[in-house]
Amino acid sequence: MITRTFRINPEYDKILNDEAEKHGLSVSALLNQIIRQYVLVSRFTERVPTITLTYNTFAPILDRVPDNDLVEVAEKTGSIIPEEAILQRGQKLTFESVNWFLDVVYGRYGNWFDSNKSIINGEERVHLTHQLNHKWSRYLGGYLRSMYESTLDMEPKVETRENSVTLYLKMPKSSPSRFNKNK
Predict the structure, then answer these.
(1) Which of these, 112, 132, 136, 116, lies nearest to 124 by C-alpha position?
(2) 176: closest CA among 95, 120, 86, 115?
(3) For the residues 18-42, what does the mean pLDDT come to?
(4) DSSP the chain
(5) What is the pTM assigned to this prediction?
(6) CA gyration radius for the chain?
(7) What digits encode the pLDDT tens for the residues 41-57?
(8) Which of 40, 32, 43, 33 shows the shortest CA–CA distance to 2?
(9) Are 132 and 58 in contact (CB under 8 A)?
(10) Is 122:171 a contact under the CB 8 Å cutoff?
(11) Distance in angstroms (rounded) separating the CA atoms of residues 113 and 31
(12) Band of pLDDT at residue 31, cut at 50, 70 and 90
């Protein structure tokens, strides 16, 4: 860690102090979280027109899209957007970088889902839960299948449920997962 000193608007300082206290953090820890989000995600999305919608706004729109159109759009965007975004961040297209992108960009900061991972017999099981509906599960299933196929030339097994998607990924032998106990 390095120490950096800067000036801040007193109104912002009060809000930062209140938020840090509410979350049981120091102001320094909160600022590090904010900076991490900027460094990993926001600085890239600033250059791309983006819309933020609440789940209550997005779900009714999603419900109106016919299933065939939804999956077609998911597969098309999933084959292009993640690859470009990973490369834009200066990363190579590897099992680790694609999984990192899934966890951090779409999961943690994109709020697309909550992610839980486990390793079973050399296969990574990624279970994604969300609060939308079966349409979002179908979209995610098509998008993520297409993402892994286009970026890594791998065909994940995908199971969709009302509020979750499970991916089964055969881990490359040369790329041990960070969840591997032998690492």
Answers:
(1) 116
(2) 95
(3) 94
(4) ---------HHHHHHHHHHHHHTT--HHHHHHHHHHHIIIIIHHHTTS------HHHHHHHHHTS-HHHHHHHHHHHHTTHHHHHHHHTT----HHHHHHIIIIIIIITT-S-EEEEEEETTEEEEEEE-SS-HHHHHHHHHHHHHHHHHHH----EEEEETTEEEEEEE--TT---TT-TT-
(5) 0.83
(6) 19
(7) 888 888 888 888 999 99
(8) 32
(9) yes
(10) yes
(11) 24
(12) very high
> Tokens 């200066």, residue?
90
Burial class (CB in 10 A: 0-12, 13-18, 19+), 154: middle
Structure tokens at 84: 């470009």
pLDDT digits (tens, 9 = 90+) for 53-86: 999 999 999 999 999 999 999 999 999 999 999 9
In 3D, which of 173, 3, 5, 145 has the Cα closest to residue 72? 145
Give per-residue pLDDT as tens, 161-182.
999 999 999 977 665 444 443 3
- CA–CA gap between residue 11 and residue 13 (Å, rounded): 5
Two structure tokens written together for 136: 């979002």
CA gap 31, 23 in Å, rounded: 12
The one-letter amino acid at 15: I
pLDDT at position 173 is 67
> 51 — alpha (psi -120 to 50), left (phi > 0) or beta?
beta
